[in-house]
Amino acid sequence: MNNCKAIEISENIYWVGAVDWSMRNFHGYETGRGTTYNAYLILDEKITLIDTAKIDFKDELIARISSVIDPVQIEVIISSHVEPDHSGALKEIAELAPNAEIFTTNPNGIKGLTARYGKLNYKAVNAGDKISIGKRTLQFVPTPMLHWPDSMVTYCPEEKILFSNDAFGEHLATSLRFDDENDLATIFFEAKKYYANILMPFGKQAQTALKALGNLEMRMIATGHGVIWRKNIDKIVDCYKKWSAGEVEERAVIVFDSMWHSTEILAQTITEAFAKRKISAAYYDIKKNALSDIMTDIFTSKYLAVGSPTINNQMMPTIAGFLCYLKGLRPVNHKGFAFGSYGWGGQSIGYVEDELKLAGIEIILEKIRVANVPTAQQLNEITEKILALDL
Ligand code: FEO
């Protein structure tokens, strides 16, 4: 915790959050590049803190706030989201700033914060509410189910800054706070990965929120994770429009597990068959790839083929876990099929197909079942079937 100084992002507005360099698993989401917990301090007539940080980083948060002001001076705390990566240090900050009012959504923010931190000095916020903190105004825009019932964003019209919490963010540990100071391809990949793994089920809610934010002039989007957008605001907003509309590309993703290489051979054949159709295809052995990376690719790829051999009359547990995750994320506009080899029963392939249907995938090819090791003729037949698909 060296050199915990606040970083001024605009006149009298400071980033006072924390960088979590070693975070690699965020409740199952593989965060290969770490993350940040962004909090912002506004110096105005009423000193205002927007969000806190995960409890493990409370000392960093307090040190950064203290590098600018004494925390006892904080009069307004905005809690954009109850999830503990943003509210984790709320109680500690409230103890240091006993006169602060804590603004959170009505009723879900109040309920969630009370359940976690007990009775504090909460103030209920409804859609359209605004408060003056001096020269600046803060307008609250609840964004329910983006991605929790209590979620909200806050807009400051005098600054043209949107404090967006989870929206528009990405899991990326970096010392440089702005989009234009970092590698853009990495940021956009991580932003897409964040959307795919956290926000994919909430496309309709995202579109509603985008409409509510549509008329706001934005000079900065100060997110809850990763970088602050200032140069690529239109680009990330356009991405959110496309992603929330469920736009997919002519691309295929093949996901499989294999016991003795036979399902693997089928996966290779299917991948090559898509390539013969000039459809780029990604090939994922589930043992060797992070689930959250695979899901990022599936999110915008129209086609999905999932393969598993049969073990103990079931599909491989790796594939069962993958399909469970897929169902929860509720992808839209996807088409696919199941495949696999088997020794005798071969039940797994039907189960995979059933799960794909439950995940909302339109089945476009009869499940591919091959006993033991696929022959050259069987592989040719599979290729021909994929070439003949009316896509
Ligand atoms: Fe970054 Fe939903 O918390």
Main attributes?
7-stranded mixed beta sheet, Rossmann fold, 12 helices, 24 strands, 391 residues, binds MU-OXO-diiron, Metallo-beta-lactamase, Chain A, 2 domains, single chain, alpha/beta
Give a description of the structure.
By secondary structure, the chain is of the alpha/beta class. It has 2 domains: 7-244, Metallo-beta-lactamase, Chain A; 250-388, Flavodoxin domain (Rossmann fold, 3-Layer(aba) Sandwich), CATH 3.40.50. Helices cover 34% and strands 26% of the residues. The chain has 12 helices and 24 strands. Strands 1-2-7-8-9-10-11 form a 7-stranded mixed β-sheet, with helices on one face. Strands 17, 18, 19, 22, 23 and 24 form a 6-stranded parallel β-sheet that branches. Helix 11 (347-358) links the parallel strand 22 (335-342) and strand 23. Helix 5 packs across helix 9 and helix 6 packs antiparallel against helix 7. The longest helix has 16 residues, at 184-199. The radius of gyration is 24 Å and the shape is elongated. The model has no long low-confidence stretch (mean pLDDT 97). MU-OXO-diiron (FEO) binds at residues 81, 83, 85-86, 147, 166, 224-225. The site of MU-OXO-diiron has 8 residues, from helix 2.
